[in-house]
Amino acid sequence: MTMTSSETTSVRITGSRFGYRFNIVGMIGFSVILFWAMVAIFAPLIIPYPVGEIVDFDYFGPVSADFWLGSDYLGRDMFSRILMGARYTVGISLAAVTIACFSGVVLGMTAAVAGGWLDTVLSRFLDALNSIPSKLFGLVVVAAVGSSIPVLILTLSVIYIPGSYRFARALAVNINAMDFVTVARIRGESTWYLIRSEILPNIVGPVLADLGIRFVFIVLLLSGLSFLGLGVQPPYADWGALVRENIGGLPFGAPAVMAPSFAIASLTISVNLLIDNLPKKIRDRSE
Amino acid sequence: MAKLVEIRDLKVEATTDSGRRVEIIKGVSIDIAEGEIVALIGESGSGKTTIALTLMGYARPGCRIAGGSVSLAGKDMVTLSEKQRAKIRGTEVAYVPQSAAAAFNPAATIMDQVIEVTRIHGLMSPDEARARAVDLFRALSLPEPETIGSRYPHQVSGGQLQRLSAAMALIGNPKLVIFDEPTTALDVTTQIEVLRAFKSVMKQGGIGGVYVSHDLAVVAQIADRIVVLKGGEVQEVGTTDDILTNAKHPYTRELLAAFEPKRRQAAQVAAAPAPLLQIEGLIAGYGQIQADGLPAIRAVENVSIKVEKGRNLGIIGESGCGKSTLARAIAGILPAAGGSIIFDGVKLEQNARRRSREQLREMQIVFQYADTALNPAKSVEEILARPLAFYHGMGGKARSGRIDQLLDMVRLPRNLRHRRPGELSGGQKQRVNFARALAADPKLILCDEITSALDTVVAAAVIELLKELQRELGLSYIFISHDLSVVEAICDEIVVMYGGKKVEEITPDKVKAPQHPYSQLLFSSVPKLDPTWLDGVEQDPELVRAYCRR
Questions:
Q1: Which of B152, B444, B440, B113 has its CA nearest to residue B307?
Q2: Fold identical between B3-257 and B277-515?
Q3: N or C: which end of chain B has fewer CB atoms below 10 A?
Q4: How many domains does chain A have?
């Protein structure tokens, strides 16, 4: 056997039967996300205690057979509260990220294809929006209109539209300069056709990856807002709010403050892992 | 003569993304004597660069040398450790890449980069190295050899940069230099000077060389022996004269035949009353519109051309002469600032957006790079279906049948329709690209350098196809190219462009005796298969000074 300068790295390959390569790290990330999604859907069916009820005589109680993750500052069951919190954290973030990315990508592609004054106006307006600090913007809106779930979703999506727009526009500008778009343009195609048929299929991969990253940002911002008391209002609580409620337990190392933090971390890290290891299509199919 | 390089039964493997191993070099054996220049020639994917890189003990990522030996001056590059190889690279074997522009660091001066090899290997003091570099610059006939080293890469021309990268390779006094298509990206008038410089330096120093190229005529000028490769195997080895005059292998003959395409029989014009396309005083360019209503940088200035029905017009010129801009202005992609375009008796709008759908349909444009001209996310079927639906309102069975017809026309198997462009070869992609233009049933097709990105043999096949289709469908082509032999093969009239202006219009039979001095320079610079051509060709220094940006 001879030595070569380029060692072939042996990547663990799974699921290659389907013509896709999906590595083990991506699978782990995907399983955790799937787990939280299931929890969010089925939470009311599986919680052992009602979320608002004080069931433990102790506050910041330890992990026990009755209370799997201890109890919070009022003696409520932490396990049930985290399961229900998943609904708010995952649901609100998902809704916000969908709105943000959809609007951002459509506007970005339109600006890239149309060019001219529309591009300039849209870009300057969204840049201006981008220059407002996101937490401050959230604070002002919630202080002015009051906190409710639709307000939260809209605020979060407005905050993340400019980033999504910039990203999609940059990608679309590159595709727009390709000859096949020129060919379609001098065929006489409409802007809508150019966006839908020529540009979108070629940027959808990076856009999905961007959606994942933005989802993480939104989870963190939502948790931040809730931590400041501007997010989901009591007695309901998302994970950020759970951390805030129980921050007093930090000196005692109470599970009540650690568990929701771990929940936030596990979700965001998993999404990142999945994005970095999305399934890749195998081009060599002569096997 | 002592053997400098002995490659024995070399095998290189590549691992695909599904983990399958493919042998890309299948047991190749090549010898190179000291001071001998051996050319590796073959189409893209034949493994010529892969073999050249193994001479440095290098395999590209995903590839590995699976067997055999590469002995360079007595050392087997395959079994050496990476550290030992690093010592040899730059001192005994050196590499001149295809694109010198990409190989230079734009942030450092040329001299610093040229003498970097001597610093890394501790060969000589910086002052000695600089003196040697200046000698090399002189030997490579670079202008201002004393001071050119203090410039940055963007301050010299492409031909100069290519010679500077040769100086970088030669400074460590190597026994073997690998040239990887060093003149492919250059204009023909520049190429001559670069080839001459390479040849004289190599002969003077008695340096062995490996010259990788797909252009037989270029190789004929510089190589002592030629190795013809195909599919990772040696097809034929012989001295340059042998290969050129007495080729045995069918593939070599194909390569030779492709070099001299058959001249087209000039179409008999059936006394067409009006020309198909008539362009008068076209002006097009880029940048801000000035007070006189013309753009700041005019790439095409006052060009008038005429295309008769069923006849072809060739537009030839070097990079930057405005030939592609002219095509874009005709197609309306870049609206012209002045002049008139009369197509089939009707004056066309300058901007494609204001032309009618019927006008757009009748004039199609085919671009140079099929890679970027086909949407990678769509199948061949979808690509061809769109113009059929868009212009002819075809759907269902009729459309599907027409797609089959189109694939037949461009000689592609019908089952290719479900593939994506990424799964096709370069020649196949260019055929799909062309079929899409045919789908519109045009009267005129603008071909912008459509064979430049293809291998010689494939390009010849595409040209043959174009001629056949013209006979069947009565099309006209405007054929834009920098390659005289291609234009000669297919066109009835040839327009020579320089600096945005039309300098001459001639017919192919008069190409031997052009009138305008620039045409003379351009036509005489095209390499011929004759190995003595480079030494015999004379360039008028006055003309070179006037027309070449070296």
A1: B444
A2: yes
A3: N
A4: 1
Non-local CB neighbours of B161 within 8 Å, separated by 6+ positions? B100, B101, B104, B153
- For residue A97, give its domain range: 16-281
Domain ranges of chain B: 3-257, 277-515
The amino acid that residue B144 corresponds to is E
For A211-237, the pLDDT digits (tens) are 888 988 898 888 888 888 887 877 778
Nearest to B17 among A197, A198, A283 (CB): A283
Q: Do B18 and A16 touch (CB under 8 A)?
A: yes
- Interchain proximity A179–B61, CB inside 8 Å: no
Asked whether B19 and A16 are in contact (CB, 8 A), the reply is: yes
pLDDT in tens, B341-370: 998 888 888 888 888 888 999 999 998 888
The pair phi, psi for residue B141, each rounded to 5°, is: 45, 50
Strands B3-15 and B63-72: antiparallel
Among A3, A11, A180, A207, pick the best mutation site for testing chain B contact (most B Cβ within 10 A).
Answer: A180
B332 in Cβ contact with B538 (< 8 Å): no
List pLDDT tens digits, range A61-103. 888 877 888 888 888 888 888 888 888 888 899 899 999 999 9
Q: Could you tell me the sign of the dihedral formed by the alpha carbons of B269, B273, B276, B281, in that order?
A: positive
- The answer to whether the beta carbons of residues B322 and B370 sit under 8 Å apart is no
Residue written as token pair 């053997």: B3
For the stretch B258-306, pLDDT in tens is: 776 566 665 555 555 678 888 888 888 887 877 777 888 888 888 888 8
> Which superfamily is assigned to B3-257 in CATH?
P-loop containing nucleotide triphosphate hydrolases (3.40.50.300)
Residue A219 token pair: 């989870």
Whether residues B373 and A183 touch (CB distance < 8 A) is answered with yes
Residues 6+ apart with CB under 8 A from A198: A175, A180, A181, A184, A189, B375
B333 phi and psi angles, rounded to 5 deg = -70, -45
pLDDT of residue A166 exceeding 90, the answer is yes
ipTM value, please give it: 0.75
pLDDT score recorded for residue B268 = 54
Is there a contact between B174 and B91 (Cβ–Cβ < 8 Å)? yes
Q: Does B226 touch chain A (CB under 8 A)?
A: no
Structure tokens at A76: 């409520």
Residue A257 predicted with pLDDT over 90: no
Q: Looking at residue B294, what is its pLDDT?
A: 81
pLDDT band at A3 (very low <50, low <70, confident <90, very high): very low
Q: Does B392 touch chain A (CB under 8 A)?
A: no
CATH number at residue A208: 1.10.3720.10
Query: Six-digit token pair at B215?
Result: 């252009």
For domain B277-515, the CATH superfamily is P-loop containing nucleotide triphosphate hydrolases (3.40.50.300)
Domain membership flag for residue A184: yes
**Helix count (H) and strand count (E) of chain B?**
22, 20
